Amino acid sequence: MSQADWALAMTVLVGLLLRGAGLWLGGALRPDHPVIAWASAVSVATLACFVTLAIAAPAGLLATVPLPARLAGLAGGALAWRFSRGRLLPAMLGGLAALLLARLATG
Length: 107
What we know:
By secondary structure, this protein is mainly alpha-helical. It is 79% helix and 0% strand. The longest helix has 26 residues, at 3-28. The termini are far apart.
């Protein structure tokens, strides 16, 4: 087994062990436990950072979309999320629709 294969195998093993530990810990704690609340807050904050970065300093194909269209997509997604009572799929579709409409309007 080469060093690269060994490193990949160890990475997979450690990832699986960490995932198993997370499932074990998450299953043992109540949904209102402070550790679960902390993990939820960290995941939401991480997602907010990625969204902010994608809007403020996009890379790849998203960089070709004008800022007003990206902001319209954000606003459309936020409104759809609010009106659909926090459901993710309507928020994503609303944001995408607003982005496409704004993109078409800006040329």
